[in-house]
Amino acid sequence: MTAPRPVALVTGASGGIGLELARLCAKGGHDLILVARSREKLEEVAKYLSGMYRIRAEVIVADLARPEAPAEVLAGVERRGMVIDVLVNNAGVGLWGLFGRQETEQVLGMLQLNITSLTHLTRLVLPGMVHRRKGRILNVGSAAGFAPGPLMAVYYGTKAYVLLFSEAIANELKGTGVTVTALCPGVVPTGFREAAGLGGGEPPAVPGTLSAADVARIGYRGMMRGKRVVIPGIPVKLMIQGLRFVPRWLVLRVVRRFQEKRQ
Questions:
Q1: Is the pTM of this model over 0.85?
Q2: Given this model, what pLDDT does residue 194 score?
Q3: Strand partners for 176
Q4: How many CB atoms lie within 10 A of CB 177?
Q5: What is the DSSP string of 55-69?
Q6: In what order do the strands lie in the sheet with 86-89?
């Protein structure tokens, strides 16, 4: 009998970086559990990837902005008799505008999706990985996590959490066989702009802008190597390194102007 293939669970797998990460996991020989809100898109992705790479691709429709969703997802995994070897926490959303004018429901939903569900899924999956002494977790953050972000204050704050949480538990898991990687890309052309209230179309030109496929490839490679933090693109790395030497008031001013130009 052949050994079962490892299983990768990817949230936000219906498009953008999540879809590209799912593709790479399938290409690498993983069976897939694809999670997102859109059944139709997920089923199209599952059919394509299972046919292309001859792997098993299961679909779990869930809105991770609901507090109950992470436990429901794991229950769905168990019903399918699958064990998660790779967890990709990719699902997330942004929200543009002055914090004091944003809808409370939207703000709390973003916190639930970007922070709470990511943490909850990680907590549910991690003990099994530690017990088996193998596993990889990839948390998709953002270069936004390295700075305060006027006009996207809560979003930037959630990505700072993803970065710091990932780094901390990566340290805690040394020697267990389980690795945690934070992927922190810069601006990526996906459906993020429209979902964040920035309007449709392509994002403004930014030095070092990479495609979703490029970001996924770099992130996947970093995850498989067990890297703690992955920042795709030399311009973004240089920008983040430069933040150490720039006064905070100037960082705030530059980020504010950048966000104003994005609208």
A1: yes
A2: 53
A3: none
A4: 15
A5: --EEEEE--TTSTTH
A6: 57-61, 31-36, 7-11, 86-89, 135-140, 178-183, 229-230
Identify whether the C-beta of residue 140 lies closer than 8 Å to the C-beta of residue 19. Answer: no
53, 155, 156, 220: which one is catalytic? Answer: 155
- CATH says 7-262 is which class? alpha beta
262: amino acid identity, one letter? R
* Domain boundaries, given as residue ranges, for the chain: 7-262
Reading the block at residue 105, the tokens are 């429901």
38 three-class SS: coil
CA distance to 39, 92, 95, 123, per residue, from 62 (Å): 9, 13, 21, 18
Does residue 155 have an active-site annotation? yes
189-201: pLDDT as tens digits: 765 545 544 554 5
pLDDT in tens, 120-176: 999 999 999 999 999 999 999 999 999 999 999 999 999 999 999 999 999 999 999
